[in-house]
Write a structure and sequence with these properties.
With 477 residues, this protein is mainly alpha-helical. The radius of gyration is 22 Å and the shape is globular.
């Protein structure tokens, strides 16, 4: 067990618990528990909004899985990963003021609330909730695994023990603090990510003898590692460019990101968040993936690529500094886990239980249900994560694709096309989800593009055609 490296991690966890306890006080005195617990009272400023979006999006996939794939694929994966730079810009510009105004008008606390009021359909609500619960389990499992891998590498404990420590840590502060705790801790964690990424990149470059020396070593091992086409030459331009849909434009449809566009205080906060978020995401994504590639000559032959980040930090820096730097991926993982937990919990409590089972539930019952469901979901994901794959990024990308195929057109077209109706939305979701699962299972990738592209196109055509066939449209916004 590396005590010096572990101490900064423990210190960060203590700070997170402190924030959770602070946030829980405002929730206890709240007159609107649901809005405060799941949406932070719609009071986020520009900096916190930018950092909570960055921290939620920058997950175990970005800080553990992404560098792991970059380690195996080379600079081609760095190029692919940079499609994520536009994430915050697209989400806040496309959803922007219109989404926030409509969410306030509908008194929407969740994305499904918005869809419910826009389309006036029980089946849209139930299918939306089902999609969130199913696909986000994959995403949450990826985060749990990333946290377990990180603690395992630092402590020398077994993976199962490390996973248990991580799960308990996250559940404690999410359950007691809700969205306000999540947003504030995300701001702290986002700053840690930014600084930790820079320190680690500098340390890796120094350990490798400079960038030119590292590139020479990569070329000697395999010339493909420094090309856009990957170690085996199988990263085609079509596959790489299709990631602009999966992790660029399509992120607008991810419920955990879209809900942030409901929570800001005013237009000035949104505009500031666009600028800060774009800079921070670009900086973190570029540097984290470069670290994965540059680690290859320094630590060759790592068998589980998801361990690259903790191993290279411990290799290139003093243990105490490695512990501080490794608080960055831990921060990224925790900030994504807490957001996903609240999102799935809100789907169960707000979108299903309060809408269709107990509409007149008392505030005390709602509070008990919210906290209880959040805790139970965390335990279930812990069980899912006990048998991890070698590269968690594929779990995360599978979840991204499924959510985008389900939600992108009901959200975007629901905002901007008055003729869109519940029939088009429901058909679009069924076609999007069904085709995505089938194409992913059968590995159907037309022109070498990522499997998500065709389901997104099919769901768009379905939305438009069915909405036009089923006129007159529902009441427009």
């Amino acid at each position: 067990m590396n005590g010096q490296a572990l101490f900064p991690m423990i210190l960060m966890l203590i700070v997170m618990f402190g924030i959770g306890i602070w946030a829980s006080r405002s929730i206890r005195s709240s007159t609107n528990f649901l809005q405060d617990y799941f949406l932070g009272g719609r009071s986020l400023g520009g900096f916190i909004l930018a950092m909570t979006m960055t921290a939620t999006y920058g997950s175990a996939s970005s800080f553990i899985g992404g560098p792991g794939v970059a380690y195996t694929q080379g600079l081609g994966w760095v190029l692919l990963a940079m499609s994520q730079v536009a994430t915050g810009y697209f989400v806040l510009m496309i959803l922007g003021k219109k989404f926030s105004i409509m969410a306030r008008r509908y008194q929407a606390v969740t994305l499904v609330d918005f869809l419910k009021e826009r389309y006036q359909s029980k089946w849209v609500v139930l299918l939306s909730s089902f999609s969130i619960i199913v696909f986000l389990f994959s995403a949450m499992a990826a985060q749990w695994i990333g946290g377990g891998r990180l603690i395992e590498s630092l402590t020398g404990l077994s993976y199962t023990s490390a996973l248990f420590i991580f799960a308990i840590s996250v559940l404690l502060y999410v359950v007691i603090g809700g969205f306000r705790a999540v947003a504030v801790t995300d701001a702290v964690q986002g700053a840690i990510m930014f600084i930790g990424t820079l320190i680690l990149l500098i340390a890796v470059i120094i350990a490798g003898g400079g960038v030119s020396n590292i590139i020479d070593d990569l070329y000697v091992e395999n010339p493909n590692l420094i090309t856009p086409f990957g170690a085996a030459g199988d990263l085609s331009p079509a596959f790489v460019s299709s990631f602009w849909i999966l992790v660029g434009v399509g992120v607008v449809a991810l419920p955990q990101i879209a809900v942030r566009a409901m929570s800001y205080k005013d237009s000035k906060s949104m505009h500031r968040a666009i600028i800060i978020g774009t800079i921070v995401v670009g900086f973190i994504m570029l540097n984290m993936h470069l670290i994965g590639v540059f680690a290859r000559p320094i630590l060759p032959g790592i068998d589980v690529a998801d361990k690259v980040m903790p191993l290279i930090a411990l290799e290139t820096m003093p243990a105490w500094l490695a512990g501080i730097v490794l608080a960055a991926p831990m921060a990224a993982i925790m900030s994504t886990v807490d957001s996903l937990l609240l999102l799935v919990s809100s789907s169960v409590v707000k979108d299903v239980y309060l809408n269709y089972i107990r509409p007149n539930a008392s505030p005390k019952k709602i509070k008990t249900m919210s906290i209880g469901v959040t805790a139970i979901l965390g335990f279930i994901v812990f069980l899912f994560a006990l048998d991890p794959p070698n590269l968690i990024i594929w779990l995360n990308l599978f979840a991204f694709g499924g959510l985008e195929a389900a939600f992108i057109w009901p959200i975007v077209m629901g905002l901007y096309w008055k003729k869109g109706n519940k029939y088009g939305a429901l058909a679009s979701m069924i076609v999007g989800i069904g085709s995505y699962i089938v194409f992913d299972w059968l590995k159907i990738q037309p022109f070498g593009m990522h499997v998500v592209v065709l389901p997104v196109l099919l769901s768009f055509v379905t939305y438009v055609c069915v909405s036009l066939l089923k006129q007159p449209a529902m009441k427009s916004s």
